[in-house]
Amino acid sequence: MTDLDSFISGLPKAELHLHIEGSLEPELMFSLAERNGLAIPYATVEEVRAAYAFSNLQDFLDIYYAGAAVLCTRQDFHDLAAAYFARAAADGVIHAEIMFDPQTHTDRGIAFAEVIEGLLSAMADARAKFGMTTELILCFLRHLSEEAAFATLAEAEPWLDRITAVGLDSSEVGHPPAKFAGVFAAARQKGLKITLHAGEEGPPAYVYEALDLIGADRIDHGNRAMEDPGLVQRLSSEEVTLTVCPLSNLKLCVVDDLANHPIDRMLEAGLKATLNSDDPAYFGGYVGDNYRAVARARGLGREHLVMLARNSFTGSFLPPEQIAVHLSKLDAFLAAHEPG
Ligand code: HPA
Ligand SMILES: [Zn+2]
């Protein structure tokens, strides 16, 4: 391990863009299929990994939704999230905001309660075991209707005190933020924060909609905002956090090569960019791997990496006093790791 590798592993950080269903490793997929008596269309773990060659977002989503079908019980959701938190803790993650897609499960007849209670119990364990703070983001699937999103919001009602934010994911192009203006307004009324996937494959216009029509607190991905200097200026002056996911961008062909990834150009343009893993089991790496990959490909030094970690805390949905606690852990780490 190089000095920079170990600096990255130890660097206290938050992960803000993580789909918990996307942390389902092939090994766990097999063991849950067996536990639930379900067949999966792969014979071996190697075959599963070989299927993870995507040329766009939809290619990935088709396989990702098929994989999620092994998740049935509260215990399954608990085990899934517990595995993620353990892996994230090893990467220096001290705060995680995890997204989940209830419709992927309720549409297969799994009760909302099974999904969320399993996740919440793993979150409580992560706090006890690793001292990690965690929050839940409920995502609506944008390829479905706004009416279906309203029904999901209604199902979530008994747990709204344990859900921090609502999000919007799945197939972006053709499903602009405007399609969901009503349900996000309703979520806002209930005190929830809002973060939307925008500008991953969709045009800069979707990022404008997320800001102007939805009032998004954060933008997930946002890569294509870089095509519009006026939008970059706006995101920068309004200090909107972008949750950028380099290995995801590479796997889904949002960038052709990590050597061309815009992460440092984003920071230099004044954008509050952060680094995240998105769907680590599918994209070949957890958050630490994302830091290491862009550090190598773009020649980032400690200054950039620290800025990214700092942005991960200030861009989180934690209350200010908890952000201050995490930032003081970052500062203590930095004081103990002065370049020598
Ligand atoms: O990167 C993503 N984009 C859209 N939907 C998703 N669902 C999981 N990951 C993603
Ligand atoms: Zn995502």
UniProtKB/TrEMBL annotation:
Catalytic activity: adenine + H2O + H(+) = hypoxanthine + NH4(+)
Domain Adenosine deaminase: 12-331
Keyword Zinc found: yes
EC number: 3.5.4.2
Site (Important for catalytic activity): H221
Sites where the protein binds substrate: D279
Binding, Zn(2+): H17, H19, H197, D278
Names of the cofactor(s): Zn(2+)
Molecular functions (GO terms): hydrolase activity
Claim: Heme is one of the keywords in the record: no
Record keywords, A-Z: Hydrolase, Metal-binding, Nucleotide metabolism, Zinc
Alphabetized Gene3D superfamilies for the sequence: Metal-dependent hydrolases (3.20.20.140)
Record's cofactor remark: Binds 1 zinc ion per subunit.
Active-site residues, Swiss-Prot/TrEMBL: E200 (proton donor)
One Pfam assignment: A_deaminase
Enzyme category, top tier: hydrolase
HAMAP family attached to this UniProt entry: Adenine_deaminase (MF_01962)
Entry's family note: Belongs to the metallo-dependent hydrolases superfamily. Adenosine and AMP deaminases family. Adenine deaminase type 2 subfamily.
Task performed by this protein: Catalyzes the hydrolytic deamination of adenine to hypoxanthine. Plays an important role in the purine salvage pathway and in nitrogen catabolism.
Protein's name according to its UniProt entry: Adenine deaminase
Organism: Novosphingobium kalidii
